[in-house]
Amino acid sequence: MEAGQGKNKESKNVWLISGLISIFLLSLFWSVDASFFYFFAAIAVFCFFQYFRSGVKVQWKKEEPPQWEREEPPQYKKYQFQSGQFGRLFKEINKEFSASSGEFKGRVFGKALMGIFSIIFLVAFCDTLFSDDVLNFPDSYYRGNEFIEAGQYDSAAYYYRLASLENPDDPEIYFVRGSAFSYMKNYDSAVILFNKVLALDSIHNDAQYAKGYALYQLQRYKEAIDATSKIMEYNPSDLNAMLLIGDSYYTMGQHESALQWYTSAYDGGYRGALLSHLMAYIYDTQGKSAEAIKFYQEAIGLDSSKVEIYTRLGELMPGEDGNFYRKKAMQFSQESN
Description:
This protein is mainly α. Among the domains are: 2-133, no CATH class; 272-337, Serine Threonine Protein Phosphatase 5, Tetratricopeptide repeat, CATH 1.25.40. 78% of the residues lie in helices and 0% in strands. It has 19 helices and no strands. Helix 12 (205-217) runs parallel beside helix 14 (239-251) and helix 14 runs antiparallel to helix 15. The protein starts with a helix and ends with a helix.
């Protein structure tokens, strides 16, 4: 009788201390993220529940184990993992504590782990289900998304406007609204909206690029370069930004500057027929035939329909080396006629 009461008191103290530690951790980490608050609050509730529950006196005779050792209570079965590995793990834990006092601690430890794992899973599921990313947007935002997918950009812009009236401080809503105007080629309005996004979130990578692209379409190339270059300050490996800056320089006729950015994108792993063609053309205008031939060949390897590339390679590669390209260019010419 006295031994049973001692063990029961010991388990109560374990749950009480665990609950107090959970409250301390809750107060320490709640400001970091809401998930910490829910997690430690759930742990604390579980521990205090076990604390008050273990207050019931347990009596047994020395020669006979208590009833809960012969038949597991429903609570234990409810939270028990079905995986064979976890089942074997907890059996091994109980075997390690084969003595009467050790067996009692093993049971308590196994139940505690089961309860904690279940709470972690429940909290993670609820945090995913009810996260701000899911609940933060009004219905009009999702309605706008439906019109975007249907290609009805004017209707999408209308619903995004309604969403921005409901959530005036959400940069994502201004971004999708600006994107709708870009789809409609209303780039002036798009730039205004992307500026609103950046006023709320200065490192919004997508908005910064979209603004640069809109400025490029408005033929405001220097502004496009300035806008897109800001991406490189916090994401220096952004290949799309490199290409857009290169296109802006190329369109302004500053081919040397354009080539530097194109080369950076190429070295970064970007491959495309248009990029190879542009780099080949710039090298060609600089009189660097070997480099031009290399990138012309890469370009037709990625897109074999470019007749002008075959023609130019035939000119750059006289003799037998250029026969293939001259014949191919002639073939394309005859097919077009």
